[in-house]
């Protein structure tokens, strides 16, 4: 589903939303649960792109429902994987996920299949093509948001629809999460593209309400 400015939400993916930026240098943001690679590749083809032309996969953070299909996709498409440096040990399985998150791969594997950790994850820079990579720690230590021209692909920093922060019980540091949200909403915003919930046009009404809740 095309949302705005060459950004698509890939239809039918289980887990967190996957976004396809179908620009001259196309790339994916996040990969959903394990076992979603075929659906993602089919969607890329359906919008007229050659999946082998993808320039990379960038991960907003290490949660299973965002990274589940990354290794299978990276292998199939022969493209690199990027994340913020603090997230990489968790994504590659070198550090245990904190709290209840460490048990999720075992709980979901009977339904979706096993998580394959990516063989290589490259640290992302301050820019990814023509998108800013904004450090937004809080939900996880190295969470990022991608921002361009008022569009923010926010991972789990915010949930869509009735815009609100990620739940505290799934958040690594609530104080940092709130500060990251303040930094984001201080920028001009046209669209919030979350990992969960619908893509949401920015409005002064919900921005004001969100700022009051912080």
Automatic annotation (TrEMBL):
InterPro entries: Metallo-B-lactamas (IPR001279), NDM-1-like (IPR050855), RibonucZ/Hydroxyglut_hydro (IPR036866). SMART domains: Lactamase_B. Residues 15-196 form the Metallo-beta-lactamase domain. It holds the Pfam family Lactamase_B. PANTHER family: METALLO-BETA-LACTAMASE DOMAIN-CONTAINING, METALLO-BETA-LACTAMASE DOMAIN-CONTAINING PROTEIN. This is Metallo-beta-lactamase super protein. The lineage of its organism: Bacteria, Bacillati, Bacillota, Clostridia, Eubacteriales.
């Amino acid at each position: 589903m095309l949302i705005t400015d060459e950004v698509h939400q890939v239809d039918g993916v289980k887990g967190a939303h996957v976004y396809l930026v179908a620009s001259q240098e196309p790339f994916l943001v996040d990969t959903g649960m394990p076992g979603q690679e075929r659906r993602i590749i089919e969607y890329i083809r359906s919008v007229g792109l050659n999946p082998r032309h993808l320039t990379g996969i960038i991960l907003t953070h290490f949660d299973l429902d965002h990274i589940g299909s990354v290794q299978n996709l990276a292998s199939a498409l022969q493209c690199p994987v990027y994340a913020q440096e603090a997230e990489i040990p968790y994504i590659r399985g070198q550090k245990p996920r904190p709290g209840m998150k460490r048990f999720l791969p075992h709980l979901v594997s009977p339904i979706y299949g096993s998580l394959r950790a990516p063989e290589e994850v490259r640290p992302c820079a301050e820019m990814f093509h023509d998108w800013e990579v904004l450090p937004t720690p809080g939900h996880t230590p190295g969470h990022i948001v991608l921002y361009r021209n008022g569009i923010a692909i926010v991972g789990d920093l915010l949930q869509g629809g009735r815009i609100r922060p990620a739940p505290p019980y799934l958040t690594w540091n609530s104080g940092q999460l709130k500060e990251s949200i303040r930094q984001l909403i201080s920028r001009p915003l046209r669209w919030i593209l979350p990992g969960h919930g619908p893509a949401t046009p920015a409005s002064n009404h919900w921005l004001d309400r969100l700022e009051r809740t912080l």
